[in-house]
């Protein structure tokens, strides 16, 4: 179902119902661009830390507009053992709703726009009929503004601010005559039989003076309102009214204003509904979608990654990323290509089963045969299909096997709140509800060199060390990972006397970064200040200069868009194989981190659903639920999630209801429990790989 | 005529012809936004200096995209004494033409986008079928890149770079086997009867190695080319060829590449043609159009205003701004509203005559009755109409009067190269071909105060000084102009002991600014760094915070869009009258500037065409032509502009042809002559006002 400004209001209830009745929700967003600075290769460095990646995306992706939002709700019909699906495709645009509303600026990236255009994206629908929205700060300010207006109006006493009653309003000299004229006219009105009279159009400042003066002089008996004439000039109408009449008018006015406010909040109301439902929200490679959704409809993203994780848990208590799920055991070796379209295709074939899903009555039927990829609603739909296929596949490992695995099954909990991290070779996901994996990178070197250097120069430099991987950081630095750790010291030593280049171990590099960080408080700022990237630079041709050098001359484009060779050079065609090679090495090096939550591979192996080593019965999953969470459930939520008793969701449900609507109080919360243990399980690498 | 990527190439000749045969050209641009920072009120401060205004527009308007360009050519048919008009409406979008092309980011401003949407603007046409473009730097780099590719190919000797012949190519260790395999295959090919063979797809780096190696080992007898398979993977095809064949293929390849280059230069070719024609180019309130055109299709705008003036004179040797013309004698008091639509309406009525203009065969007929305002092609068209009406009106002052005044008539020269400056109360125009007016501002005060202050606080502060004007600079500072100069010192003195606020004279302020400037080299940078404005700020809600304070809560919008009240508070509804009042004062204060070219009002009065004080014959205008320019004419240009012998244009024509295609060598040039004398004339204020 297509939702624009034209049919948004009348569709709201349909949307709310769909969310409320759903077992899970799938979402997808389309943006006006991906990176306003570095190319994707630099934005997604294979050796980023989660913090670095977050800061880069925050800094270089958030000025783009999320202008199409796909929501697909899936409800399981036990009786017919099939899912009923309702899909919504929202067009979003921050249309200024009044002269005092925010005038949002957003960036467009020609490669992304051109890509969407090639997919038949309808930009006119976005810009002409897009649904407006406000984040929570803006909404709050608008409410305050509304209050102020009520103070000014000489309406119901309750709305008169104390100050405006204290005494005479101070009227600037040059406006005194004007105001006195108005007062005379009011006196006449009160003494003659007229009901009301108009004033000539005047400035906002003069109108304010009139409101304040009359407010103070005639707290009752008068109704003052601002109207617009056909020339769009604003003028004031003053009328005699009895208390009854005045209260009624005030009432009407306030209801109208309230409705205008709701219209302004617009699409944000849908996101609030999704958030308050606390339902499982599914996306494919969804980190950017989540970041944009929070940034655009809740609040500017926090500086610190952990704060971001907490905000995210407030807004989306349960997330699941199908790209991460597909690249994890037991799906990893069954699925060769995890791009959405490919994944959907593979999950229709054995050993997987195509899921039974039907569109609800009155909702459009999507045909997966004739792909409409990159329409947000459709992408959300097939993301849902992928999840159902994979979830059901997990059921085959149960004894007895099950055909249908619910969105609340413990079997999928290990995948919760782990968002796929693109092209980080040894950290597959961002752990939203727990600490991140901390691979040792003791075979990695940090190399700085003259900006003339190309990849080939680095290959030459390290030609003695066999197979290496190069990860560009910027013009003059890159990470180089060696296949053998013991070579690291040799490389560092040999570089001692080099003049043109410099080699540090990864550890040394991270240390110096830490100091840097402490010197100038925020990494993002200084980290990139030094880099040659900046919107203006790109526009003014300097960035172009770089793109033409052919060193890394690729337009940042969405995962699905990146042509093979680009993929190649970004991840490294020459390193594509060795990436997996590398993960193999790294995973062996993964250590237990006392402070962090990651465990050794072995320790967690048994907790991987359907893990080949030995299938496991549903019961054993109870262990993955901490007593603390169990206790925190309220009876109501018990009911709501009774079928498989999901303590986790209900905990959150309760937290949120306790927090009220503005559910983003960054409430501190222990982020441990099932995930921390299953997290490393997710990263488990079986010998048979 | 609508021109998109689809019909651009086939339309080029039509466009070139139209430009060549035209008497003058009218242009107009539509942008994706106006200001990415301050509101229009702050962007267009009533007391900006030309330098400040230029820097603000450069800093806050150039990241937007000029995505629709209107060109209207007007040719006068002596025989039928009418103009024949050809209008073109170009849709423009920087579609990346290859993976190595620039990936432009541009900003969109919701208020502007929303406004265009409300005018029925077709965004799909822009984003799906927009014509690409390159600026001169980008074009140059692309040419170099083309050369590089030819070096790599083992084509015609002339294209082999010396380096690649010097000796064996250094092949990184891990690629040696790969390259050797290729060499074996080549040997086989040369010894068997096959004509050619394919290699498996490989990385760009590997292809480069292959090219270089074969280039060096087999300078002749082989043709190597890169092709794409259906999976869009790139592979190499190696074929045996004799010299003939190889040369032919190289030839074809180079022609194809040349054509691709031309396609990439795209719309810039139209601007180059306009520039090279050196025809009179007309626009309405055209400063932003000119800045965007140069910025987008020629080069990033220079830091210094005088450099910008020189670049502009290179690109557009003769400009005329109809808004400036309409707000100047003798039109000033005949025309109440100079917004394009209003102007067009008024110029159809007495004392003006509706111009005789017809669309050329095969070109759409615009109907001024059913307005299509804000379609660039249409706006350019009625801008042309306005110019013709006003030009012809000047003819009525001649003895004997003339019905038709040509675009080359001396009568309009005084209006050349003076671009309207919006809302600067005492500097009506930016003088592109001369020094700018330098009004004394000795009745102006610079006031700083706490950010809580509103306009009313300032009125209160100065209530003793009668009628004042307030011009906000930022949150905590504003200019205040008093009606009497002698009050300035009083105000400054009284402020000596004030704590909350501070008052300086305009002179003192400018001095401190100058020092500031010298401390941090570029005004734009530091000047705005201190201000609370910034895209991110606006997006992240802080800017919003400000817009909601209601102090200056207006979306930056184009002149025509600004609703009455906005106009009011920006220029000041309460100051609208006093603006003219003020100009009256200022104009009296205008001084001769020894270094500058501005003259006293009286001195120049006689040079105003059709100036009421006394009409003048065409001959008297010869005085406004300097001998230097006369001499600099070449016979060819003489012919070209013979009918009224326009030394000025031809000078430029010659300069340019001397400079060749890339006509932007910032060639130093005395900017004096007719304008400097007429400039003050334009600013002349008759007693009868």
Describe the protein:
- Chains A, B: It is found in: Cytoplasm; Nucleus.
- 2 copies of one chain form a homodimer.
- The model of chain A is unreliable at 154-166 and 522-689 (pLDDT under 50).
- In chain A, helix 1 (8-21) runs parallel beside helix 11.
- With 689 residues, chain A is an alpha/beta fold.
- The longest helix of chain A has 23 residues, at 243-265.
- Chain A is globular, with a radius of gyration of 30 Å.
- In chain A, strands 1, 2, 3, 4, 9, 10 and 11 form a 7-stranded mixed β-sheet that branches. Chain A has a 4-stranded antiparallel β-sheet with strand order 15-16-14-17. In chain A, strands 6-8-7 form a 3-stranded antiparallel β-sheet, covered by helices on one side.
- Chain A has 29 helices and 17 strands.
- Helix content of chain A is 44%, strand content 13%.
- At the A-B interface, strand 5, helix 4, helix 5, helix 6 and helix 8 of A face strand 5, helix 4, helix 5, helix 6 and helix 17 of B.
Say what oligomer this is. homodimer
- Catalogue the unreliable spans of chain A: 154-166, 522-689
Kindly provide the radius of gyration of chain A, computed on alpha-carbon positions and rounded to a whole number of angstroms: 30 Å
Helix share, percent of chain A: 40-55%
Largest interface: A-B, 85 and 86 residues
Question: What structural class is derived from the secondary structure elements of chain A?
Answer: alpha/beta
What is the makeup of the main sheet of chain A?
7 strands, mixed
Tally of alpha and pi helices of chain A: 29
Shape of chain A: globular
- Amino- and carboxy-terminal Cα gap of chain A: 43 Å
Q: Would you tell me the overall average pLDDT of chain A?
A: 75
Strand content of chain A: 5-15%
The strand count of chain A comes to 17
């Amino acid at each position: 179902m297509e939702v624009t400004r034209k049919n948004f209001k009348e569709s709201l209830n349909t949307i709310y119902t769909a969310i409320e009745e759903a077992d899970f929700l799938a979402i997808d967003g389309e943006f006006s661009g991906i990176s306003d600075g570095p190319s994707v290769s630099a934005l997604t460095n294979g050796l980023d830390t989660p913090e670095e990646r977050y800061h880069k995306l925050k800094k270089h992706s958030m000025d783009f507009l999320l202008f199409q939002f796909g929501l697909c709700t899936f409800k399981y019909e036990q009786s017919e053992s099939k899912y009923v699906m309702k899909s919504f495709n929202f067009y979003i645009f921050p249309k200024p709703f009044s002269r005092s509303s925010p005038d949002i600026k957003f960036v467009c990236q020609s490669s992304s726009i051109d890509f969407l255009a090639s997919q038949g994206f309808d930009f006119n629908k976005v810009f002409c009929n897009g649904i407006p929205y406000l984040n929570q700060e803006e909404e709050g300010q608008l409410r305050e503004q509304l209050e102020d207006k009520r103070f000014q109006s000489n309406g119901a006493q309750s709305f008169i601010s104390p100050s405006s009653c204290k005494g005479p309003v101070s009227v600037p000299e040059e406006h005194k005559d004007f105001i006195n004229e108005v007062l005379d006219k009011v006196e006449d009105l009160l003494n003659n039989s007229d009901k009301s009279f108009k004033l000539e159009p005047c400035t906002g400042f003069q109108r304010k003076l009139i409101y304040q003066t009359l407010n103070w002089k005639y707290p009752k008996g008068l109704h003052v309102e601002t109207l617009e004439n056909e020339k769009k000039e604003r003028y004031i109408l003053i009328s005699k009214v009895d208390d009854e009449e005045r209260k009624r008018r005030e009432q009407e006015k306030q209801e109208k204003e309230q409705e205008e406010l709701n219209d302004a909040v617009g699409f944000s109301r849908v996101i609030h509904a999704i958030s308050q439902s606390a339902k499982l929200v599914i996306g494919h490679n969804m980190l950017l979608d989540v970041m944009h959704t929070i940034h655009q409809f809740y609040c500017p993203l926090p500086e610190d990654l952990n704060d971001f994780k907490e905000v995210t848990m407030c807004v989306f208590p349960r997330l699941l990323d199908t790209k991460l799920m597909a690249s994890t055991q037991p799906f990893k070796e069954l699925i060769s290509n995890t791009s959405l379209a490919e994944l959907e295709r593979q999950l229709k074939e054995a050993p997987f089963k195509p899921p039974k899903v039907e569109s609800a009555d009155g909702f459009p039927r999507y045909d997966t045969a004739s792909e409409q990829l990159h329409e947000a609603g459709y992408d959300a739909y097939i993301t849902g299909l992928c999840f159902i296929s994979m979830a059901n596949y997990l059921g085959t490992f149960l004894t007895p096997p099950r055909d249908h695995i619910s969105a609340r099954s413990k079997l999928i909990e290990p995948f919760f709140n782990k968002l796929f991290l693109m092209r980080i070779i040894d950290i597959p996901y961002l752990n939203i509800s727990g600490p991140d994996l901390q691979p040792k990178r003791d075979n990695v070197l940090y190399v700085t060199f003259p900006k003339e250097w190309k990849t080939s120069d680095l290959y030459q430099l390290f030609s003695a060390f066999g197979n290496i991987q190069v990860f560009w950081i910027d013009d003059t630095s890159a990470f180089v990972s060696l296949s053998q750790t013991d070579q690291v010291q040799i490389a560092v030593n040999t570089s001692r006397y080099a003049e043109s280049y410099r080699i540090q171990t990864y550890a040394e590099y991270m240390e110096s970064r830490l100091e840097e960080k402490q010197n100038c408080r925020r990494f993002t700022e200084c980290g990139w200040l030094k880099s040659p990237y900046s919107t203006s630079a790109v526009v003014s041709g300097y960035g172009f200069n770089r793109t033409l050098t052919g060193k890394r001359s690729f337009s940042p484009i969405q995962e699905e868009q990146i042509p093979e060779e680009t993929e190649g050079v970004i991840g490294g065609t020459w390193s594509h194989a060795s990436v997996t090679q590398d993960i193999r090495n790294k995973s062996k090096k993964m250590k237990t981190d006392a402070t962090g939550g990651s465990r050794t591979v072995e320790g967690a192996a048994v907790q991987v659903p359907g893990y080949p080593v030995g299938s496991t019965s549903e019961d054993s999953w109870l262990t993955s639920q901490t007593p603390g969470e169990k206790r925190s459930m309220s009876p109501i939520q018990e009911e709501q999630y009774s079928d498989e008793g999901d303590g986790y969701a209900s905990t959150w449900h309760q937290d949120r209801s306790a927090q009220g609507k503005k559910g983003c109080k960054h409430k501190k919360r222990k982020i441990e429990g099932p995930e921390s243990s299953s997290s490393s399980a997710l990263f488990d690498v079986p010998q048979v790989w």
